[in-house]
Amino acid sequence: MFRKICGQAFEAINMSVGVISLSAIGLGAVAIFGGSGFLCLAKVGVKIVPEENAVQAINLGMRTTVGGAVGFAAAVIAAAGAANAVDKVQLEESLNSDTNSVVFKSSNSICCDDNTGLIYLYQIMKIEGCRNLNSKLIVVRMEDETHQKVVIYDTLYHHVDTLMEIFDLDYDEDKLVGKAFSSQNPNPWEAVCEFVSFHNSILRVKSCGEFSGINLETCVGCRNLHGANKILCGIHPFGWDSSCACPDWQSDGTRVYFPYERQETIDKLNQDIKPNKALLLKDDDGTLTLWDNHTLRRFHFSWAGILLDDSDRLLELGTHAQLLSYVQYFAVRAIIEFDYSTKLLNFAKQLKGIATIDIENDTINVRTNYCPHFNNHINRTYRFRFDGIPLYPYESIVPVELKHNYNLATFIVWLKANKTKLVK
Questions:
Q1: Is residue 37 part of a domain?
Q2: Least confident of 75-79, 117-121, 124-128, 348-352
Q3: Do 87 and 59 lie in a common domain?
Q4: 225 - beta bridge partners?
Q5: 394 assigned to some structural domain
Q6: Is 185 in the same domain as 225?
Q7: Residues near 294 by Cβ (< 8 Å), separated by ≥ 6?
Q8: Domain that includes residue 202, residue range
Q9: N or C, which terminus of the chain has less Cβ within 10 Å?
Q10: Is residue 414 predicted with pLDDT exceeding 80?
Q11: Of 394, 392, 383, 381, whose CA–CA distance to 340 is shortest?
């Protein structure tokens, strides 16, 4: 509050100085031109005022003009400086305001003794349009509080090149944005230093070129590594050379991982669900994607196995079901093929006056004229396979009420319940 009052007072004083300076420049210019005019008239014999007075007027006008110019220039410079100061204050308040939904805090605010044994997810970001961060690559972790999200961050500095090597990004630092890693250290700077140090031995081996083409990254942190730099494995001397995770990898205890962060864990889960047309993929941004190749639906989880808020979900598993429940569901799911094309006449009767239904190009098409906000006719076509599975489960025209339970049967029920909104 005091800073704000002082700023307002400075602004008022600075504006007054600027106005006075401009007035001085104007009066000085009048004196100069007036005195010069009187001197010219005196030289041609017309003496209105004594020449001494005209010279004095010119000298006074010049001093007044110079003084006004200096004062105005000082006011402009002061105003620019004040504007920059205000910008910094506003930026600081914007980043740290308790009323802001996102609050940025430097890693300097994190005490080194704050380690609680938790596993934190760190992500690499670039904040555009923020003068304080200047579009630099930063490493952040987020904390969800009651009314805001707290972002603890630090600049990556000289670790950028090493991180590009670790993530194998061909030295394109923009591709680092979104990459994630885990750590038990609550301080972003210390966490990224530990992460880089953890991979240093493998990076040194790769740099010598002897093991090019072998996926040594899967060996990092394995208890089977030995030797001076812990880069040799008694079971696989040249590293694991398969696309899947090494079956002999065992943690040496130097790092603690999220339950579903390591690729070998994902591979084991896929053994159970692949026969039922499902596939779990690990993403580098700290998430997992569970693909249902039968229904064309996808479900997103964190490396901790928690279903993300914006993900699709299986209603039959409940709101709080996690990854393992989904894996168990797909492991035992029985796929029952049913041909809804034989029910087309029955559906047509149910949808009379609401929508039309027909078969085209081996798909069941349901066509409606629907607009909930305006009395306009908008043609919309919903396409389903013969087994009732939608061809495009996530297209924008899918009713919001059905976003987690959308198929031909549920859609027809929805159409009949909302027939007042539909115009044939």
A1: yes
A2: 75-79
A3: yes
A4: 233
A5: yes
A6: no
A7: 276, 277, 278, 335, 389
A8: 102-208
A9: N
A10: yes
A11: 383
Separation CA 244–CA 266 (nearest Å): 10
356, 352, 353, 354: which is closest to 364 by C-alpha?
A: 356
User: Please, which residues bridge with residue 187 across strands?
Assistant: none
Q: Among the three residues 307, 332, 357, which one is the final residue of a domain in this structure? A: 332
**Distance in angstroms (rounded) separating the CA atoms of residues 3 and 276:** 65
Residue holding tokens 């093991």? 211
Looking at the 3D structure of the chain, how many domains does it have? 5
* Final residue before a domain boundary, out of 78, 96, 114: 96
Q: How far apart are the first and last CA of the chain?
A: 63
6, 77: one domain = yes
What is this structure's pTM?
A: 0.71
Q: Answer yes or no: is 200 within a domain.
A: yes
- Domain check: are 158 and 189 in the same one? yes
Q: Is the pLDDT of residue 54 over 90?
A: no
Residue 213 banded pLDDT, cuts 50, 70, 90: very low
Q: Are 193 and 159 in contact (CB under 8 A)?
A: yes
What is the Cα–Cα distance from 159 to 139, expressed in whole angstroms? 10
245-254, Cβ contacts within 8 angstroms, sequence gap of 24 or more: 245/218, 246/218, 246/219, 246/222, 248/222, 248/224, 249/218, 249/219, 249/222, 249/224, 250/222, 250/223, 250/224, 251/221, 251/222, 251/223, 252/221, 252/222, 252/223, 252/225, 253/223, 254/198, 254/221
Cβ 388 vs Cβ 338: under 8 Å = yes
Q: At what angle do helices 51-96 and 2-43 cross, to 10 degrees?
A: 160
Q: What is the Cα 330 distance to its own chain's centre? A: 31
- Whether the CB-CB separation of 153 and 104 falls below 8 Å is answered with yes
Contact 132, 144 (CB under 8 A): no
Closest CA relative to residue 379, chosen from 396, 402, 355: 355
Do 21 and 69 have their domain in common? yes
CB crowding 42-66: b at 16 or more within 10 Å, else e:
eeeeeeeeeeeebeebbeebeebbe
Partner residues linked to 181 by β-bridges: 122
Q: 323-332 and 263-273 helices cross at what angle (nearest 10)?
A: 30
268 and 235, same structural domain?
A: no
Query: How far apart, in whole angstroms, are the C-alpha atoms of residue 294 and residue 333?
Result: 11
Of 68-82, 110-124, 212-226, 267-281, highest mean pLDDT: 267-281
Do β-strands 149-155 and 102-106 pair in parallel, antiparallel, or remain unpaired?
parallel
Are 110 and 197 members of one domain? yes
